[in-house]
Fold these 2 entries.
Entry 1:
Amino acid sequence: MKMISPWRLNILRAAYLLLALGAGYLNWSQILDPAREWDMMEGIVVIMLGAMSLLALLGLRQPLRMLPLMLWEITWKLIWLARVALPAVLADQVSDGVAANMVACGLVIILIAATPWDHVWRTYLRGPTEAWR
């Protein structure tokens, strides 16, 4: 197995820290607020992103093992940008909420740059398949 250089792992750790602090600050302040009430979908989103911020802390210790979390974060943001933000921009109907989320999701470029794609390719796409039984 090809080794990932320490500087590359540290860049990946910085991306996990960005996830943990960014999502953690935004979501845990709401989660811990006893006066806060949500409808079902808003509550699901906030709690899922809060859980993701906690899991991102594991990426500081095990950056390669936590790559599926990074891939999930990159994937949902790219899908949201393509399916929600782009049509809103093309229709010239960008609400304040969409605009704010476009900025937050636009930071996905940092995560994309920090991800060791050669390792992702070797491990998840070209690597041996695990036994089904």
Note: The two ends are 25 Å apart (CA to CA).
Entry 2:
Amino acid sequence: MFDIGFWELAIIGVVGLLVIGPDKLPGVARTAGMWLGRTRRFVSQVKTDINRELKQEELRKALERDAGLDEIKQIMNTEKFSLEDEDNKPDYQVKAIPDEPQNIADATASTKDDDGKPKA
């Protein structure tokens, strides 16, 4: 995390020993370790809380989307709803031409001669 090597740690220890003194150094080191542990637990707890909130928000959005879909499904399943009952139908409606085998036979017969050869 801090990328501290052995020699850097040794220098910090010697400076701490000279500044604080040999009798108070173990207590200070214990207190510093305690605060470091508390800080790590606090950061971990904050990360966990943030992740939990994000998951809850995603779940809430998904439920809202599903709720909207349920309303649409309910409307579509009612007997009152029908696309054909709309009052403002357009004047132009495209309808498919039915495929009738007789019309196809007539069309192929008109392109052939009496002998069954294609007309030129």
Note: The first helix runs from residue 6 to 20.
